[in-house]
Write a structure and sequence with these properties.
The two termini are 51 Å apart. A hairpin with a 5-residue loop joins strand 4 and strand 5. The protein has eight helices and 27 strands. The protein is α+β, with helices and mostly antiparallel strands. It folds into two domains: 162 residues, no CATH class; 466 residues, Beta Barrel (Porin), CATH 2.40.160.
């Protein structure tokens, strides 16, 4: 009988006003109307039994009861569906199903939606109380509904408190392939050897036998509510892009997050897991002074000349790798005194290991001070003990809304105190910038002092300075820069790349850059750097010439095209010559997916003593790269 009554009610509702003649109306100002609108907005109520929602016309109490019962049944169905998704995810992960990531994304969306049910559950409970008689007449088990809603209310409350987590991430697939030319291996801009077969004693080969595939998955977790007083974040990375080299002298994309390895490429290394970020932060005030703090595994940079991780992943585009921040286990503490910002920071750098034992963030005390003979050297490439701890202070203030001045002091310390080894590096300096009406000027000065404990061991030819002026218009811009880096300046910075040489010292150069946008889709640009070494290398002071020019075109169908040429000459005896031509294509598969493909052909002659990270010798060959990035 009850089932017949349910069917009869559904028919009466679909016919429109039939029920209006059978049962009394609910007054137009009744709170239940607004409650049903809220349930409809939140996706809990999708319509009356006939699939339609009748809006503002007067309803009967039995129509209200039918709608309440429908909303309750849908909410239970959605809740039970979560359990099914969890089981499906567990099965996919246990069976190695590649669709696990998609199932996880769908489950996360469902859970995020459920976290907002708190008010909806309370609304349904209130409506069940109001229309209890009518629900009973429909055959619904009102006591069970009340008990179920009470239990669900508790679960949602716990979910809101305990599972307020935001999960994002990126998945990257990287393919590298090199080819030799004229029986000579090639060298790319990173100074890595390409076109060699590691299974045949690194003999010259083609693309198919110097083919390496890399992958990396990063999961970023943080508290889901940005209004929380205390915030936390963590990043876990899975992949095969970092690690030590093999017996053939080849290595993955990077040795770690800081240093590039030598030799060729190999993907024959173990899957690794590491945590670049894991911290807690908060903002408050103490005695009217603004105060911020972050502790844990944090990222920190100061400026390119003093403390900033080099962007040495030229063939891998990723925000995490390209953010310029060194990772350390420690903390930073910020104070705001009116318009002045003061930040103190410090932490442990070395021995922060991945799952396979790779030190993910080593900073080397440069070996340059062990051999002060005037040779060009690059901190990070040669010798030196690892920095065990870094302490620093940074102070800055704004110049109106157009500029800013910063000053910083850093102490890099190694715990090794034995023998005659130097074990401490001090870096300090100031930089600033000012922009007005398209014109901009920037400059900086810094100095490094190498110490053994607290005694200065090397304090000469150790300064760096630059000044940059430029102008940006609507469709063109240009800047010019003077830079002088003395021979024994040493800092963990990111100030320049000249060919295969990162952060070169012993240089005094002038650089100019210009770009032009004939249309919104087309950009043409060129950069030239010219100068010489400050100190003689051997019998002379080599001249430096570096030119790069390119064009980038954004097509309307999601494609981009890029053509670029780079030519570096170090005029010594004999001359060093490095040239590369690159053609690249990019395609936006969606707003969160990008595919890129590029081929670079290079001709490099480093003569007998090499240039920066580029080994001595002559090289000629190509380098094919492809990257697929999915963000979620």
């Amino acid at each position: 009988m009850k089932r017949l009554l349910m069917i009869a009610m559904a028919v009466s509702l679909s016919l429109g006003a039939v029920a209006q003649d059978q049962f009394p109306d609910v007054p137009a100002n009744h709170w239940a109307y607004e409650a049903l609108e809220v349930l409809k907005r939140d996706g809990i109520l999708v319509g009356y039994p006939d699939g339609k929602y009748r809006g503002t016309r007067l309803a009967t109490r039995y129509e209200m009861a039918v709608a309440i019962h429908a909303a309750y049944k849908r909410m239970m169905s959605m809740h039970e569906g979560l359990a099914d998704q969890v089981k499906a995810l567990e099965a996919a992960m246990g069976g190695g199903n590649g669709d696990a990531a998609g199932l996880l994304k769908e489950l996360k969306a469902q859970v995020d939606g459920m976290k907002n049910w708190g008010d909806d559950v309370a609304t349904l409970k209130k409506m069940v109380e109001e229309f209890e008689k009518e629900l009973t007449g429909l055959g619904a088990d009102v006591d069970k509904i009340k008990a179920t809603l009470g239990d669900l209310e508790g679960r949602v409350s716990n979910l809101e408190k305990k599972m307020n987590v935001s999960v994002t991430g990126d998945l990257n697939l990287l393919v590298f392939a090199g080819n030799a030319r004229d029986k000579v291996a090639g060298m790319n801009k990173e100074g890595r050897i390409v076109g060699i077969n590691e299974k045949a004693a690194n003999s010259q080969t083609g693309l198919t036998r110097d083919l390496n595939v890399y992958h990396e998955l990063a999961l970023n977790l943080k508290n889901g509510n940005d209004k929380d007083a205390v915030k936390w974040n963590a990043t876990v990375v899975f992949g095969n892009m970092i690690g030590t080299g093999n017996a053939a002298g080849n290595a993955p994309v990077l040795a770690d997050m800081v240093n590039m390895p030598f030799g060729g490429y190999t993907d024959n290394n173990q899957m690794d897991i590491y945590i670049p970020d894991l911290g807690v932060s908060f903002d408050t005030s103490i005695g009217g002074v603004g105060f911020s703090a972050a502790v844990g595994r944090i990222g920190k940079k100061v400026s390119p000349m003093m403390f900033q991780r080099a962007d040495n992943t030229l063939y891998f585009d990723n925000d995490r790798w390209d953010d310029g921040k060194y990772r350390m286990d420690g903390g930073w503490f910020g104070f705001k005194f009116g318009g002045v910002d003061l930040e103190l920071f410090g932490g442990r750098n070395s021995e922060r290991h991945s799952n396979n034992g790779t030190d993910i963030n080593p900073i080397n005390l440069p070996g340059l001070f062990a051999t002060p003979n005037g040779n060009i050297v690059a901190p990070g490439y040669n010798g030196g003990a690892k920095v065990d701890a870094t302490l620093g202070a940074q102070i800055g203030f704004n110049i109106g809304t157009q500029g800013r001045i910063n000053a910083a002091y850093l102490l890099h310390d190694t715990y090794s105190t034995g023998g005659n080894a130097n074990n401490r590096l001090n870096v300090f300096g100031v930089d600033g910038n000012y922009n007005i009406s398209g014109f901009k000027i920037a400059g900086g000065y810094s100095k490094s002092i190498v110490q053994k404990n607290s005694t200065n061991a090397f304090d000469k030819k150790n300064q760096a300075a630059f000044v940059n002026v430029g102008y940006d218009a609507s469709n063109w811009g240009a800047w010019a820069e003077y830079r002088k880096i003395q021979t024994f300046y040493a800092a963990a910075g990111d100030w320049r790349r000249i060919g295969t040489f990162w952060n070169p010292t012993n240089i005094e150069t002038f650089t100019g850059h210009v770009y032009f946008k004939p249309s919104a889709a087309l950009k043409v640009y060129a950069t030239g750097e010219f100068g010489e070494t400050i100190d003689a290398i051997g019998a002379n002071k080599p001249k430096i010439e570096s030119i790069m020019a390119g064009v980038k075109y954004n097509m309307t169908n999601g494609w981009t095209a890029k053509l670029e040429y780079e030519d570096v000459k170090i005029k010594t005896n004999p001359n060093i010559k490095q040239r590369w031509a690159t053609l690249g294509l990019g395609y936006n598969l969606s707003t969160n997916a990008l595919l890129s493909l590029a081929y670079e052909y290079g001709s490099v002659n480093n003569q007998a003593f090499g240039w920066g990270g580029g080994a001595p010798g002559s090289y000629k060959g190509g380098f094919l790269t492809s990257q697929l990035t999915l963000k979620f």
